[in-house]
Amino acid sequence: MALETALKFLQRLEKENTLRTQLYISKADTLEKLVQFAHGKGFVVSQDDMKIALNEYQEQFPQGTIEPLRQLPSGQ
Predict the structure, then answer these.
(1) Domain boundaries defined on the chain
(2) For the chain, what is the total number of helices (H) and then of strands (E)?
(3) Do residues 31 and 68 make contact, with C-beta atoms less than 8 angstroms apart?
(4) Where is the Nif11 domain (predicted)?
(5) Which residues contact 60 (CB under 8 A, 6 or more apart)?
């Protein structure tokens, strides 16, 4: 279920320019910080689920991209 939540978060992130801007401003430069950002937006996921979701997610919208997130390191 948490994997499904992570996938929904990535879909929303790709779709909503405002959310991507907030993520950029928050300087979520690690997987841990990305997960903390997701928690702050109401998406409760683990780092493992987010890592799997980043590998599995297929982009669906023409303007947004999550591609840079796929390269985030796990550490702090």
Answers:
(1) 1-25
(2) 4, 0
(3) no
(4) 1-49
(5) 11, 14, 15
